[in-house]
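Private note to self, pasted from the team thread so I don't lose it. Backbone tokens:
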């Protein structure tokens, strides 16, 4: 469909714009203006209904007027309500939006300059009266993680009614410009193809069509509770049985490692199964915001193919509207204390944190790496000056729109669940956020700078390759290594419990060597190569 035809298909929009002026005095904005018309249909929780959407955006520094033509998007969308608590407790509703062709098929669009896609989330900040907590956290996360959702603030008009300030945000999705992991098709059920990519979610069972698997381990202190890993990508309706079996086996093996007495071993322990840096960065984002939902809700993990790293990674991060001091329960408003201690603070809650977060924090080496990363970030991205600058920049963007937002939703000065602080005006809400964050940073400095200091590991000039990966039970696995300048090499293989199950002296005088092995027991195995008595390389072997 051409752009001309798209505009011709939307006469209902022009009628709705004249109606909205009688509500809030909304004639123009410094923000893009989004106009959605559902043509009399109520928006359901799901499935999405067809509707029309137009966006007015005249460029940076230009005013956008409600009577301007739609110039940033004009066409069909699918729309439904989204969220759980945010949907139930607020009249200002969040939405999931899918840009579509007129026939209902997906239409990838570079919406407001964000990378081209068709799935978008319209966040509706309500109890967060600064309007910026989610976007602020995503901004912080993008500066330290491979990806966090990009966003654009807009003002929304729905069926002729002004709805206030929203944030259009990228949905967490496998994509080269989002979660950049391999595409996994239903017929990719063996070899390296089977190993990725996957996105899992720990969250409430909101919505229909969910599927996943239960952890074999209960949360700490709550044997009557359970952790469920939900399939996010591939979606429950797309993931094949071999793929389900593979990712479930991987998670089970990781949790078995974490439950073992040697879980922190540098070769046989968790470093063989997870990308430790991603866990540290995820920890720091959830702790700097003291996210009361952190680790237990809206929590994502992902895994790429073994040929592209293949270790389990935490993230991306999501959902911080009741973080940053905006929750008055389970110590969510305190500037002191770890959010990761939620189970001991609020063990009666139904949704709790997986046991392995506590295990990670018990490892001195993990804490030492947190300290190293924190020290690096506090001198740059997480400095008081940098964070205050981000807050000032974001509040400047929404400062005009927030006036109309709180005319439409006159909640300023009122307690809205679960506010820990109630300001009488927008400025006091922003000042509270800054003061809270300053106190949080001071507390985290005191805690983290008491962690152990990391020691550097020796480097070695060696490469190792294992194939096939993954392997099926009974299949021969080949270890091929190349080493420079040494003739004394040993390869050691370990099971999940840390027991050495194979040792092979290797002749490296020619610069390379090979070892063959097979197993009938599925799981994650680890190996290390020692040269001249010193660990030089290591990795994991997956058998399913």
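Design output:
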């Amino acid at each position: 469909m051409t752009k001309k035809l798209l505009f011709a298909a939307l006469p209902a929009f022009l009628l709705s714009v004249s109606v909205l002026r009688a509500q809030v005095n909304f004639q123009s904005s410094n923000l893009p203006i989004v106009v959605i018309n559902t043509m009399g249909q109520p928006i359901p929780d799901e499935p999405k209904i067809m509707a029309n959407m137009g966006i007015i955006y005249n460029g940076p520094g230009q005013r956008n007027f409600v009577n301007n033509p739609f110039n940033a998007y004009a066409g069909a969308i699918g729309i439904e309500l989204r969220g759980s608590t945010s949907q139930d407790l607020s009249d200002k509703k969040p939405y999931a939006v899918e840009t579509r062709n007129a026939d209902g098929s997906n239409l990838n669009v570079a919406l407001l300059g964000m990378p081209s896609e068709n799935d978008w989330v319209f966040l509706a900040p309500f109890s967060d009266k600064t309007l910026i907590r989610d976007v602020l956290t995503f901004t912080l996360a993008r500066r330290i993680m491979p990806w966090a959702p990009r966003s654009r603030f807009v003002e929304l008009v729905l069926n002729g009614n002004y709805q206030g300030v929203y944030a259009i945000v990228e949905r967490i999705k496998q994509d080269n410009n989002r979660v950049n992991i391999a595409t996994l098709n239903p017929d990719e059920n063996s070899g390296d193809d089977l190993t990725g990519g996957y996105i899992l979610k720990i969250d409430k069972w909101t919505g229909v069509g969910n599927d996943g698997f239960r952890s074999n381990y209960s949360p700490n202190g709550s044997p009557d509770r359970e952790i469920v890993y939900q399939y996010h990508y591939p979606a429950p309706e797309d993931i094949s049985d071999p793929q389900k079996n593979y990712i479930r086996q991987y998670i089970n093996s990781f949790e078995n490692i974490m439950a073992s007495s040697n879980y922190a071993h540098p070769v046989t322990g968790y470093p063989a199964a997870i990308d430790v840096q991603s866990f540290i960065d995820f920890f720091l984002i959830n702790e700097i915001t003291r996210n009361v939902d952190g680790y237990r809700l809206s929590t994502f993990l992902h895994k790429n193919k073994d040929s592209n790293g293949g270790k389990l990674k935490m993230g991306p991060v999501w959902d911080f509207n009741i973080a940053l001091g905006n929750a008055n329960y389970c110590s969510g408003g305190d500037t002191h204390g770890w959010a990761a201690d939620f189970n001991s603070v609020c063990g009666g809650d139904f949704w709790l944190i997986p046991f392995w977060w506590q295990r990670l924090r018990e490892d001195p080496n993990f804490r030492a790496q947190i300290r190293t990363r924190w020290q690096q970030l506090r001198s740059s991205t997480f400095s008081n000056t940098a964070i205050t600058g981000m807050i000032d920049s974001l509040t400047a963007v929404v400062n005009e729109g927030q006036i109309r937002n709180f005319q439409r939703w006159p909640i300023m000065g009122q307690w809205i669940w679960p506010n820990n602080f109630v300001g009488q005006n927008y400025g006091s809400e922003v000042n509270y956020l800054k003061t809270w964050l300053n106190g949080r940073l001071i507390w985290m400095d005191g805690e983290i700078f008491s962690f152990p200091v990391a020691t550097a590991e020796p480097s070695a000039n060696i490469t190792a390759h294992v194939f096939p990966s993954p392997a099926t039970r009974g299949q021969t696995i080949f270890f091929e290594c190349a080493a420079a300048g040494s003739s004394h090499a040993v390869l050691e293989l370990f099971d999940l419990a840390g027991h050495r199950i194979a040792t092979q002296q290797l002749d490296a005088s020619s610069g390379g060597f090979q070892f063959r092995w097979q197993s009938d027991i599925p799981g994650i195995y680890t190996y290390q190569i020692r040269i001249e008595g010193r660990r030089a390389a290591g990795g994991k072997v997956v058998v399913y």
